[in-house]
Design a protein that fits this description.
It is a single chain. By secondary structure, the protein is of the alpha+beta class. The protein contains 18 helices and 24 strands. The protein has a 7-stranded mixed β-sheet. A 5-stranded mixed β-sheet has the order 3-2-1-5-15, sandwiched between helices. The protein has a 4-stranded antiparallel β-sheet with strand order 4-7-6-8.
Length: 519
Amino acid sequence: MAKLYMGFDAGTQSVKVAVYDENFNPVASHSLPTTLHYPQPGWVQMNIDEFLNITVECMKKTVEAIKGKGYSPSDIAAVMGDGIICGICGVDENGKAVTPYINYLDSRTQADVDAINAKNLDIWGRETGNPEANCMFPAMFARWFLANSEDFRKKGVKFVHNAPYILMNLAGLKGEDAFIDWGAMSGWGLGYKVEKKEWSDKQLDILGIDKKYMPRILKPWDIVGGVSEEMAARTGLVAGTPVCAGAGDTMQSMLGSGVFEAGQGVDVAGTCAMFCVSTKGIVPELSKKGSGLIFNSGTLENTYFYWGFIRTGGLSLRWFKDNICQKADDSSYYRVLSEKAEEVPAGSNGVVFLPYLTGGTGEFKGASGMFLNMTLDDDQFVQWRAVLEAIGYDYMEITDTYRAAGVDLNRITVTEGGSRDSLWNQIKADMLNATVVRYRNAGGAVVTNCVFAAKAAGHIEDVRPLLEKTIIKDAEYTPNADNSTLYRKLFDLKTKLVKTDLQPAYATLMQMRETKVEK
């Protein structure tokens, strides 16, 4: 009997399911896109049952594929998945959603965030490592649901993330059985004790969130149940196949990029472009108010990391291809854009893009996405490079914060879908003045999940040696000194433009967006 493991990654833009063998070679996989909804300016939400249904469909296709290769569904020893760490919905007693799924792209809680931060409490930073509330935190979404969702107030029993929602439904669990792993727990941003891996009664009381709504906290490799008869019929999996508690996508991507120890940097080039640095725990210099960094615990015990982010980093790239270039059905057009953009000089002829397509936060809370400084000589390839550089400028600010705290960032690993783009990687190397390394197993969250499934099944003890075997260096990009010098000058000018020159314009632009024809 063969030993196979199934893993899935439920991301913002797509869900991927794959099966790996006992040597962690890929056997079969399938993926499908998700749908984002924008009911109001600054609001971004999803249907969590779409996550469930497309994951089930991907599982079905993957099971059919392994059967076509001579394997049996009974060969699959366990199922393990990961999902978005900053996003929740509310579920009823049957474990079914009674609210939309709100994730990190949403800004509806900004006024509440400002009110929480006005209290100037130090308990947040002391217990979570996050000194301030942020409108991407699930803790703030929970407050919004409690204040605005009549369905949740009447029928809600728990708040859950998207991967646990999929996993608990796969196992046929009820709402009271809801769970979260200790890494994704820290995605809540507030409301927990990060080092003790437990909910904080005091924080939850301040937030006005009854502890009864919080899911139980588990280890990622804990078995929560087995595939139900209903889900066995829908997926092709064998009923009773062990289902793990799951993990956070960022945590798994970091492990899949070889980050096992403190002091390593990773660029998770997904929908939310995240720049992560692993640490041994809370670093006071990085947990200061105004740093803009988020602190989380990792999948493995006693592992931690900080991350800075550009909420619409990867989404800006998809938006440009789909909406501006009108190439929504042509994923290969990313390659066309980057090949042509290689001919555009560093600095994009002075063209600047602001990537705040779902609204700004903090000092940029009135900002929106925009192109500036264009002439008749510019085309979509200049714009494309400007979009890439816009994300890079935000990375430069995050990198400056890390380096000021003494973190050595001369070498950075890139992962997730954006890491496949060589131009993008070279731009990062130049802008951050650091060597950028890409591994062949880019976006290694799914195979990482399969390694943990093997641990859950009792087939392995230590995951690190096996994870290291799945990682092979694919490419390395060294910074161009002249470009690095140019980008530093342009960064200073862009910072002045965004933080000073454009500030008075944000309110006017927002007023123009909100002005409609009177009926």
